[in-house]
Amino acid sequence: MMAAGRAGERGFRVLLLEKNDKLGIKLLITGHGRCNITNKIDSPREMAEKFGKNGKFLISAFSRFGVRDLIGFFESRGVKTKVEKNNRVITESDMARDVLNALIDYMEKNRVEVKLNAEVRTIDRSGGRIEKIVLATGEEVLADRFIICTGGKSYPATGSTGDGFEWAKALGHTVIRPEPSLTPVILKDAFVKELEGLSLRDIRIAAYKDGKKFDSGTGDALFTAKGMSGPLIINMSKGVRKELPGDIMLKIDLVPELDFTEVDARLRKDFQEGPNRQIKNCLDMLLPQKLVPVITKIAGIDPEKKANSVTKEERKRLVSLIKEFGVHVTGLYGFEKAVITAGGIELSEVDSKTMRSKLVENLYFAGEVLNLDGPTGGYNLQVCWSTGYCAGEAGSA
Length: 397
Known about the structure:
This protein is an alpha+beta fold.
């Protein structure tokens, strides 16, 4: 939509082919329906660094149409934004629908024609150029330039089924094997079901394989029916995927602001102030109530035991669990729950300034179909906006 709108804005006749029966299905579920449109990092180079070694490809696009440009784009169209935790830029209304409506309006004002239920069957190439597109209906579409913005394979129910990868390969492009990225983790611990729905704020998690630490981070997480999700877990899943299979444990520090000695002192204080209170009622002053029965069970302590009866050894076990609550990873979810797709079209075959294919002279790419994947927090949508804008501008040059 960004690419189409920009090409139309430059005065060219534009047709957007949409496989679904409506526009923006995936956009509407981003940010849990609130649309985390970007991350407030003003420096193009700093933003690009979030994408690892492939990030340098994005410096030009972020310089041409960066975070400030994007926020200005939407705010000038009535979509006010706000900055939340970790510099996430969200719609002030908390409604992704406002973002979609602004894009649709952008296209309408620039006379972009939209064709829904338009599934592409083949892309016909003649020499070094694309000649036409043939739809599933048999209808042929001829144009001077073509932009592939099909996304990856994440959330296939929204229509992202990897079509763009297959077209690119058929046109001679190299496609780095697509893999699900930024996914929830699956845990084998039986107690996970008891913790379903529990949100943990500002915790620290360290990841270990065979007892050796390989990653750590601080942020928010959430227990699900079969494992864990949330921003911290989603971002750490990239490192976990590289280490699988293996004996992988996550050690959760539930109170990272306190060290072991301080947690012990806090427990002694709480126990002394309420010596006749049951331990479960003392612990919920420090921990989420839903977590207390699980921790006391693992520690081998009767939750109804009086605080003044807790032994030093029992208290030490509680301290250890509060600072290093261990869960065991058995796997990760696939594309059906992946935020984005890792892998995609080889970047060396694409001009980073224009998004133009170096192999097919009238072909351009934008968005997740490219071999780019960053952390959660608005970064990946910024790639879509920036590369889409550049492709739309260059494709209509």
